[in-house]
Structures are given as structure tokens and as C-alpha cells.
N-acetyltransferase domain-containing protein
Amino acid sequence: MGSDACMDQTIKSPYTSRVLKPYIRRDYESRPLKLRLLSEIHAYPHRKDPNWVAEPDAPIDYCYVRPNHIPSVNSMCQDIFWPGIDLSECLQYPDFSVVVLYKKVVIGFGFMVPDVKYNEAYISFLLVHPEWRRAGIATFMIYHLIQTCMGKDVTLHVSASNPAMLLYQKFGFKTEEYILDFYDKYYPVDSKECRHAFFLRLRR
């Protein structure tokens, strides 16, 4: 992810001219399964040393998107969604983004288009790496993105087979439309992913 020095600097949004802080949140409490596994691996060589004390875990950091995040974000998208995704456009409105890091590794991200229609923002991508799920990361990302567009409706498309549908419903999103073959133009021909989508809206 490049040098640590850049992470402690503010950035200026080209979209709103706001100065954005280095971190949205630093989470020292959550213990995703992957983090617990890494701790066990680190402790194993010292299992017979009663005086050994583990170093504190690094936090899970939530921050605004930066240019050095984009290669990892694109790679994750192409592995889990479909080939050819390039999210460089999100650098135009970093205020409406969240990238989740463990040390220098991207483990999740969420992006929103703030003005897709009048009084409507659209969540374009939201993803947590499978090894880091079930730890509240997606929940915080959705909460953050919703807060960035207070007063606007928030919409998104979600695959009909995606269990995240339940999470969106907890935030108050309601189904407006069921779209057949929505993902047909994105997924490869041999993909086994569900091609149908729900269109959801959170009304403000």
C-alpha cells in the first residue's frame, strides 16, 4: 500500500473541497476470524515460553480512498465480482468512500456516487474480503456511507442471491424492483453467480 507516511496526512476532496481526516475510524476492539488466526500463528512459536507477551494487534482502519488503494481495490473487485472493473473514478469524490485496512492490506471498501439523480445517491460497490467477514465491517461501512448523504435517498442494486440483502433491510432499505438479467452484461458466460438483482431504496 505504499509508505505509512501518506496515511497520516489529510486529503482535499476535488468534489466538495472539504479537507478529509486521515482516518474515519480506528477500530481496536473487533476481532475478525482472520485476525484471531494471525494472532494464533504469531503466538505458536512462543507457546512454551511463559514470559512471552504478544504485541497488541494493529487496529482495523477505516479511511477515505486514496490513489494507492486503487490497484488492490480493483484486484479484489475483479476476483470477486467480474473482470475489467476499474474504480479510479471514485477518487473524484473521496468524501463518499470508505476503504478498510489491516496494516497495509485492503480488506474491504464501499463507494457511493453522490448525485446519480436529483436528491439520490447510489452505492456502487460494497465488499468485505471473505476472510474478514462477520465482524461488523460491512455494517459500519454502510452506516458511514448513509451518513455522508443525509437528506438524500440512497439506492443500490444487490444480487438476488446475496445474503447482504438482510443487512440492507436492517438499515431500512426497501425493495422497489426485481430486475431479471441485470448482471448479464457483467458476468462471464460461464459464471455461476445469480444474474438477477433487487433494486433497493432507503427513503429520507
